[in-house]
Amino acid sequence: xxxxxxxxxxxxxxxxxxxNDRLPPERDLSLRFGVSRAELRKALAELEADGLIWRHVxxxxxxxxxxVLNLADATYLGELASPSQVMTARIAIEPELARLAALVASxxxxxxxxxxxxxxxxxxxxxxxxxxxxxxxxxIAKATHNKVLLYLFDMLNTVRRSTVWGQKRTTQRPAxxxxxxxxxxxxxxxxxxRQDALxxxxxxxxxxxxxxxxxxxxKG
Length: 220
Fold this sequence. Notes:
Elements: H1 4-14, H2 26-33, H3 37-49, E1 53-56, E2 60-63, H4 71-80, H5 83-104, H6 107-122, H7 126-142, H8 147-162, H9 179-192, H10 196-214
Antiparallel strand pairs: 1-2
Helix pairs in contact: 1-3, 2-3, 4-8, 5-7, 5-8, 5-9, 5-10, 6-7, 6-9, 7-8, 9-10
């Protein structure tokens, strides 16, 4: 029998929700799924811990990870930036984040990076994979312990997640040999081994591979 959190994941996946869209009110979801508010909130807490949703008291429940920025600024940038510009910015910034993480990441940082690396592999669907992947890259940025760089990453990440990419999914979840799994593992090991130059190179290779997969006509 499916758990309530699994049922909610399917509802979100099939409901056509976009990043920062608001879910129906808790009372409506409770009635829809025939559960108590306490049961619903427990399941929502699981989804929030996975980065699939975020909740704001008095405002509701929203799709995606909790924003930490001025959403008006992020929305404005999202309207200006094309997917190719977003990917170019990621290729410029994220290798340096990986390099710095390799130099200063704590044991707790590394545990979080490993956790999300594994969650990418075990994601039951594409939306869960994308949330885990987002959390992995955020964990690497946070491991730099540089608040300015983390702010820049969060701004870029918010713009990235609000940009329409137009990717079509033909499977329910990533295949077991999905290209990112081995790349994530290698980046994680380089950071763990304090190999800063290697971590930067592997992250750049990963970002280029992502760009070529989602924007195959982009050059440079």
